[in-house]
Specification:
alpha/beta; Rossmann fold; nine-stranded mixed beta sheet; 9 strands
Length: 267
């Protein structure tokens, strides 16, 4: 049921999905993300990359344009439809891409040990029905020595909604189970989300067999509430640099809105 609701929501918003995240905050957020991903790009351009929970293909398209054969995976057919339209616009470069409608908890169509870099941005770990199975699938499809970069919802940040609505029962349930809901207007589209603490996210990947390289928060500074500063290029550059510095400090991840983990498959 939860999966059906998530697919229904993402199918509905696919055509306008990019406009939802088209503002100064997300521009800065994406710059921070790419600067954290870029050091892990494979040295060999013949390496294959994977974009899980790809949405309209933002990150996979960056990998593709960087020269890597890239596979795009999303559970919502309409999202994959948007990706395919963008690939057609790329002409010959788009021929290096593969698209797949699949749930990240089970991707038998993808080969084991197949991908040097796996991205799972936009919190598909939180959206999926079973993060343990999803992390195991990431481990299976990553090549030996390959890197996974994935994001997830931060549990403490999710607590703000329950406090603002004076819902102490909901707050206790969130802190006890880690579960919350996607807050969309339609009850038919409200699907369950799994939130994580930094420690819990690290343990999830370690138990799946990964070596954790890094775990940071995005964003630590309250940038979303101060978008006006980000609308000025000079101020945005300064704030991006400060955010990147803070993300390297131990324990700041717990204060962020989302968590991002970077892990390697030993081999």
């Amino acid at each position: 049921m939860g999966k059906d609701r998530s697919v229904r929501y993402h199918n509905r918003v696919a055509r306008r999905y990019d406009t939802i995240y088209d503002d100064a905050y997300w521009l800065a957020h994406d710059e921070i993300t790419w600067r954290q991903v870029r050091p892990h790009l494979p040295r060999d351009l013949a390496s294959r990359c994977l974009d899980l929970g790809c949405g309209t293909g933002k990150w996979g398209l960056k990998l593709l344009k960087s020269g890597y054969a890239t596979t795009f995976v999303d559970h919502a057919p309409a999202m994959i439809g948007q990706v395919r339209a963008r690939l057609e616009e790329l002409g010959a470069r788009g021929a290096k891409a593969t698209t797949l409608v699949a749930d990240i908890v089970a991707m038998p169509e993808l080969p084991a040990d197949g991908f040097a870099l796996v991205l799972a941005m936009g919190d598909p770990l939180s959206i999926c029905s079973d993060p343990v199975r999803a992390a195991a699938e990431m481990f299976r499809v990553a090549a030996p020595g390959g890197v996974v970069v994935a994001t997830a919802d931060n549990r403490i940040a999710a607590a703000a909604h329950y406090l603002e609505s004076s819902d102490l029962d909901g707050l206790e349930r969130l802190l006890r189970t880690g579960k919350t809901r996607w807050l969309t207007d339609s009850a038919a589209e409200q699907f369950e989300l799994t939130t994580f603490t930094p420690d819990g996210l690290q343990k999830l990947f370690e138990r799946s067999g990964f070596e954790v390289l890094d775990l940071v928060g995005k964003t630590v500074l309250p940038l979303r509430a101060n978008r006006q500063l980000l609308e000025q290029p000079a101020e945005r550059r300064r704030l991006v640099e400060l955010e990147l510095q803070l993300s390297r400090e131990p324990h700041t991840a717990a204060a962020a809105s989302h968590l991002q983990i970077t892990a390697r498959k030993k081999g």
